[in-house]
């Protein structure tokens, strides 16, 4: 019987490499970049994501300005705050930490971000450019997955690919990215009657549901490449969509935490740098 070999993807190591590259470019160009982070309320998962972003920014020499607002803030107040930041020359990019409370119109808030200051690609205008294949940057999670595939030499053009979940941060942008490259994939949502039939045939699974232990080892085939971009918090611990026992079956797998997350954070700041450089050229 052949011994099972698993390679766990080291997202922190990839993020460090990207960070060194960003740091070098910032130093070489004597750039002064500031990312505005807008947080509403005090969601613990959001706070922990912001902490990760701040730590990375500090390491590479980018400033982070945090605007933390109470849950009682209105959509209009948030839009005005973003519109002001759009015209502030000291602010290089703006991100809104999601999810926002139910009383706020999230789409209206995200659409207020000027594309030149939208490193998350969450405004409708940025998303339309990306969907049309006209964006010079990729959404951070997509860019992270692309980088992981490059680093670990995963060939995706002829693989059976399954995307689990169709949310706006993982499933939708990953699907658009594959479509833009002419690569077919199967999509699994809560409406699929038999998701196991699709999962069991997949060579590559990309999941972003945010439901702990959703993917079980008996659902996937041997040597599968499992990219787990689903994050949820259970009792103060970050968990992914894949049951940890999937490691006994997969050939390549992203742990949660420490897999896609750190790379996506690094890619956010790489996008910020790219936008600020293209903004300078455009001026």
Automatic annotation (TrEMBL):
Domain Tetrahydrofolate dehydrogenase/cyclohydrolase NAD(P)-binding, chain residue ranges per copy: 142-274
Catalytic activity, as annotated: (6R)-5,10-methylene-5,6,7,8-tetrahydrofolate + NADP(+) = (6R)-5,10-methenyltetrahydrofolate + NADPH; (6R)-5,10-methenyltetrahydrofolate + H2O = (6R)-10-formyltetrahydrofolate + H(+)
InterPro entries hit by this protein: Aminoacid_DH-like_N_sf, NAD(P)-bd_dom_sf, THF_DH/CycHdrlase, THF_DH/CycHdrlase_cat_dom, THF_DH/CycHdrlase_NAD-bd_dom
Pathway where this protein functions: One-carbon metabolism; tetrahydrofolate interconversion
One GO CC term on file: cytosol
Chain ranges of the Tetrahydrofolate dehydrogenase/cyclohydrolase catalytic domain: 9-120
EC number: 1.5.1.5, 3.5.4.9
Coiled-coil portions: none
Subunit-level organization: Homodimer.
UniProt similarity note: Belongs to the tetrahydrofolate dehydrogenase/cyclohydrolase family.
Designated name of the protein: Bifunctional protein FolD
Organism of this sequence: Candidatus Yanofskybacteria bacterium RIFCSPLOWO2_02_FULL_47_9b
Gene: folD
């Amino acid at each position: 019987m052949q011994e099972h070999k698993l390679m766990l993807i080291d997202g922190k190591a990839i993020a460090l490499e990207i960070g060194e590259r960003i740091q070098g470019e910032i130093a070489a160009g004597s750039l002064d970049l500031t990312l505005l982070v807008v947080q509403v309320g005090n969601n613990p998962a959001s706070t922990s994501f912001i902490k990760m972003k701040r730590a990375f920014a500090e390491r590479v020499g980018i400033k982070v300005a945090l605007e933390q607002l109470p849950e009682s803030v209105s959509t209009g107040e948030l839009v005005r705050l973003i519109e002001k930041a759009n015209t502030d020359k000291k602010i290089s990019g703006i991100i809104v930490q999601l999810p926002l409370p139910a009383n706020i119109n999230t789409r209206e808030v995200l659409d207020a971000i000027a594309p030149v200051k939208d490193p998350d690609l969450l405004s409708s205008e940025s998303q339309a450019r990306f969907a049309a294949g006209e964006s010079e940057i990729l959404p951070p999670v997509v860019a992270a997955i692309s980088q992981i595939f490059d680093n670990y030499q995963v060939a995706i053009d002829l693989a059976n690919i399954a995307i689990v979940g169709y949310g706006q941060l993982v499933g939708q942008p990953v699907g658009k990215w594959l479509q833009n490259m002419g690569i077919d994939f199967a999509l699994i949502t809560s409406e699929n009657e038999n998701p196991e039939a699709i999962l069991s045939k997949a060579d590559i699974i990309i999941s972003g549901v945010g439901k702990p232990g959703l993917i079980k080892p008996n659902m996937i085939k041997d040597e599968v490449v499992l990219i787990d971009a689903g994050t949820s918090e259970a009792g103060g611990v970050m968990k992914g969509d894949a049951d940890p026992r999937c490691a006994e079956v997969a050939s390549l797998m992203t742990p949660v935490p420490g897999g896609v997350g750190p790379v996506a954070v690094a890619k956010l700041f790489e996008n910020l740098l790219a936008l600020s450089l293209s903004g300078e050229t455009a001026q």
